[in-house]
Amino acid sequence: MFYRPEDGHGLPHNPFNAIVTPRPIAWISTRGKDGSENLAPYSFFNAVSYTPPQVMFATTGKKHDRDGTKDTLANIRDTGVFAVNVVEYAMREAMNLTSGPWDKDVDEAEMAGIVRAECSQIDCARVANAPATMECRLTQIVELAGTANLVAFGEVVGIHLRDDCIVDGIFDVSRYQPLARMGYRDFTRVTEVFSMSRPGEQVI
């Protein structure tokens, strides 16, 4: 099968959503300039550089009360900071609950029974028991083609690691099983890890 996206695919559901998988999920917490709290998941997300450490996420769509975007990016645009919380399999239901199209005055963390803690380097809350949280300062927002397609880049200025996830000096993802987004309504989790060395790489 071949199709051009501009012509349509003719299938019951869009296959593009299932091609780039699995996708890590950024469970992003932000604080509005009015002090309101927000927590929402984004699966158009990844790390993009080591030095300095930087991440990106994309938001698509908009809310009527948020000037062409959603609560998360609106808060980041106003404050310049955000926290990326890693989602573990055990928190899948809470994460999913926070993905709803809630009004901007709804505190998703409170609604989902999530305990918050303050970040260290930025004025923002984080998910207290997340396996890891990256505190980020906004570096730029890029507008993409289409309607309300925006990408935010942030420099990681602080990292929280849950102690039980550090094993023999390594952040061990098998301890918490990261949740990832597949296509359609499907998700997956990391339950098996294997290692490979690059050609010519010295194994220490």
TrEMBL record:
InterPro entries recorded? Flavin_Rdtase-like_dom (IPR002563), Split_barrel_FMN-bd (IPR012349)
Annotated ranges, domain Flavin reductase like:
18-178
MF annotations from Gene Ontology = FMN binding; oxidoreductase activity, acting on the CH-NH group of donors, NAD or NADP as acceptor
Superkingdom, according to UniProt?
Bacteria
Classification via SMART domains = Flavin_Reduct
Q: What is this protein called in UniProt?
A: NADH-FMN oxidoreductase RutF, flavin reductase (DIM6/NTAB) family
Q: Which organism is it from?
A: Aliiruegeria lutimaris
